[in-house]
UniProtKB/TrEMBL annotation, chain A:
GO MF annotation list: protein heterodimerization activity
Species, as recorded: Lolium multiflorum (Italian ryegrass)
PANTHER family documented for this protein: MULTIFUNCTIONAL METHYLTRANSFERASE SUBUNIT TRM112-LIKE PROTEIN, UPF0315 PROTEIN-RELATED
Gene Ontology biological process terms, A to Z: rRNA (guanine-N7)-methylation; tRNA methylation
Name of this chain's protein: Multifunctional methyltransferase subunit TRM112-like protein
Top-rank lineage group of the source organism: Eukaryota
Lineage: Eukaryota, Viridiplantae, Streptophyta, Embryophyta, Tracheophyta
TrEMBL record, chain B:
Locations listed in the record: Nucleus
UniProt-listed GO biological process terms: methylation
Protein name: Methyltransferase small domain-containing protein
Keyword S-adenosyl-L-methionine: yes
Family annotation (Gene3D superfamilies): Vaccinia Virus protein VP39
Length: 133, 286
């Protein structure tokens, strides 16, 4: 699971109102490089919860990867930024799409319910008594 | 159990027996033979991972992938940012989708869910063997994603559990979840449709398999009431079953028609005509 998916996952336990963001616990992670696509990042940016992404990157061992506040679009998508080492857009790309959480857990901020991540797959399956009706 | 119930049960058993001849998960040769047009643009069957509790690529999986291939130009033109498969099983379909849209590169990201824990692992294996990445989640339909992912998914593909079975078979873990569809095979489908409608973006499309028994026309009608146009992309008849691949997309004209008339559109409404002509053209051919 990458941090992109973490950013869009919420706790689904019965009785929880927001259940977001899920606290990320990382036991094992890996990095897989992929090509940067500025159009994808431009499209997803307005939907991102920046704080949740910063917290997740930090939990994955990259506390200084992202600025605390979301950078301006003008900075992110400035000419040449995608090719500039250490630019805001490269950092965003790295955080969202290149960090993989292989083993760990997602913890519901409201209920404390822990969802395991095994072999890269978060398990959001609930027990019968936890399901919303 | 009343006499009526047992008749229904034996009908169901007959259906299951039919299913296992058309697509036997246990005894018959397990690997379907892909048509040649399929091989370059799809997952390679020898690389598809397997597990005794996970549905192997079958006629329905191939029909869905063939329909996606036939619609490849539209899929590419859509330039989807996010694609999702609900019920990914072996991973054959989501891997094939990613391969056929390869030229979109990392502009397109993939997500897949399954309720069967063995299936999510198997899907990871299939993706990995093809050098493709998708984020895979073990969950019921899209539970946990519905809030934050609402309106964001451009392509959804589903080969749902569609076989009519007794209701009690729903919720059985493992391989049974890959076919058990409850009453008319619609029980899981009818939970998938509203969830997927919420996730689809304005330009988003849903591709879904349905069986004749699921009342595909009724499904299109229901989606039409929610503002979705529909088309039959493919119909395939085996001796045992008639499979349809349905495509749905939001259409402003359809939703105004449906709301203005205050009732569901009649059978001669224009939204139905592509469907009908397909029906007439192909319906009696086999
Ligand atoms: C007919 S199989 C299709 C598998 C694969 N997509 C293919 O086409 O070969 C249906 C899949 O849906 C999964 N499934 C059934 N109910 C589900 C649910 N409520 N949520 C998510 N997945 C479900 C099953 O575990 C199974 O893997």
């Amino acid at each position: 699971m990458r941090l992109l998916t973490h950013n869009f996952l919420a706790s689904n336990v019965r009785g929880v109102s927001t259940g977001y963001p899920l606290a990320l616990e990382v036991a094992k992670s890996s990095i897989k490089e992929v090509e940067l696509n500025a159009d994808f990042l431009r499209g997803i940016l307005p939907k991102l919860d920046w704080r949740a992404l910063v917290a997740a990157a930090s939990a994955a061992g990259f506390p200084d990867l992202l600025a605390a506040e979301q950078p301006q679009e003008a900075e992110l998508f400035a000419d040449g930024a995608a090719d500039a080492e250490g630019s805001a857009i490269r950092r965003l790309h790295h955080a969202l799409l290149e960090i993989h959480v292989d083993e760990g857990a997602l913890v519901c901020p409201d209920s404390g319910r822990s969802f395991p991540i095994l072999k890269g797959v978060p398990n959001m399956l609930l027990h019968e008594d936890e399901v919303r009706h | 159990m009343s006499a009526g119930d047992s008749a229904a049960v034996s009908a169901v058993e007959g259906k299951l027996a039919e299913l296992s001849t058309s697509c036997d998960l246990r005894t018959l040769p397990r690997r379907g033979k892909p048509a040649s047009a399929r091989t370059l643009n799809t997952a390679q069957i020898p690389l598809v991972a397997s597990h005794p509790e996970v549905y192997e690529p079958c006629d329905d999986s191939f029909a869905l992938v063939d329909a996606l291939l036939s619609d490849k130009a539209q899929l590419l033109a859509l330039q989807p940012s996010l694609c999702l498969e609900v019920g990914c099983g072996s991973g054959y379909v989501i891997t094939s989708l990613a391969i056929m849209l390869r030229q979109l590169g990392s502009g397109t990201q993939y997500l897949a869910t399954d309720i069967n824990q063995h299936a999510v692992e198997t899907t990871q294996g299939t993706l990995g063997a093809h050098g493709i990445h998708a984020d895979v989640i073990a969950t019921d339909i899209v539970s946990g994603l519905e809030k934050r992912l609402a309106g964001m998914v451009d392509v959804v593909v589903v080969n749902p559990p569609y076989v009519p079975t007794p209701e009690e078979e729903i919720g059985i873990k493992g391989i049974a979840a890959s076919w058990a569809g409850g009453l008319n095979g619609r029980q899981v489908i009818d939970r998938i449709l509203p969830a997927v409608r919420e996730l689809l973006s304005e330009k988003g499309c849903l591709y879904m398999i349905a069986l004749e028994d699921n009342d595909p026309l009724g499904i299109c009608h229901l989606m039409n009431e929610k503002g979705f146009a529909s088309r039959v992309l493919l119909k395939r008849c085996t001796e045992e079953e008639s499979l349809y691949v349905l495509k749905f997309w939001q259409d402003a004209a359809v939703s105004t028609n449906a709301s203005q008339s205050g009732k569901s559109p009649g059978s001669d409404s224009s939204w139905l005509s592509p469907f009908r002509s397909f029906w007439h053209k192909n319906g009696s051919s086999s």
